[in-house]
Amino acid sequence: MDFLEAYRSECGADGYFIGCGSDLEGRLVPVRGVRLEIIPGLPWARERWHGKLRAIACLPAVVRAARRILLRERTELVIGAGGYASLGACLAAATLGLPVVVHEANFAPGLANRMLDRIASLVCVGGAETAAQFRSPAVVTGVPAGKVAGSRRPAEPPWQILVMGGSEGSPLLNREAPRLFSDLRRGGVAFGVRHLAGRGDRAAIERAYAGAGLAARVDGFVDDMVPVYAGADLAISSAGARTLAEIAAAGLPSLLVPLPEAANHHQSANARCYRAHTTAGPIIENPSDWTAAAAYIETIVRDPHEMRRLGECAGRRSQPNAAGNLVRACESVLAARAGAAAER
After folding, report:
1. Do 207 and 243 belong together in one domain?
2. H helices within the chain, ranges in order?
3. What are 136-183's pLDDT values in tens digits?
4. Are residues 190 and 90 part of one domain?
5. Are 291 and 330 in a shared domain?
């Protein structure tokens, strides 16, 4: 949606979002003032072989439905950002001779974008390491972080720790974070907790914090993350590409907890790449890592200068013009096509 907003503001162009009608799309897209067009589709990621076969069998219907929308709307360009609906819409665009621009936010390209690599006019990526994994022409545009800006809190205790597992939530974080903070509290660290549980059982998480003697604010999904980041000092988070872009934009030190169930373990790859660029804390992927995480947090929160340094390192990874960069890349594709048509 950031791309459409940037297109509207920079070019006065209109656009819409094609999806398969998931709860997340139905909640997020309309609230951003973007029209949602639904095409049929079945999930692919984390499905067993028979589920994947059903998804493949459904793909021709997905492409036909997307073709009808593209023709009706007189669409000039399709931007694919990964996923089943994106694959169907981009394949439909290719059958109509429309330019396709792919945006890959993750370090390791997903299946849909790898398939679209062969038909894309241009691939836009979050970082140079990802560009090298595509055959099509690729340009680094960054990953949009919306309106998130640097944290406004002074770097001093009591520290405010933000726990978040991405748009759907992290079962691992929902289970383990209260135990982590119980250990931290026994170390005498002064802190508060804001925990975003996603689809997790908020009441059960609140009980876990209360049982550990901690007062924590537990929310499900939060639409406006700007004030959430503005009031945080440290993030303990899953490693989705958008979430990492927001953490960098907020300039927050972080510990990353990749979702074990993420398709092709792409969050683990995201976390390692992000840590290499920002000196983020230890990546938590095994039960034994939680002890190291508690020790790491206790060490850095006792040193405000280190907290500020880590926040500045994260901030240098921020890409504030990512959405505009992609718009300009798309416009270059359209201009090249127009020039080629004029020469003919």
Report:
1. yes
2. 2-11, 23-31, 49-72, 84-95, 111-116, 128-131, 171-186, 202-211, 226-230, 241-250, 266-278, 289-301, 304-315, 322-343
3. 999 999 999 988 987 776 777 788 999 999 878 888 999 989 988 888
4. no
5. no
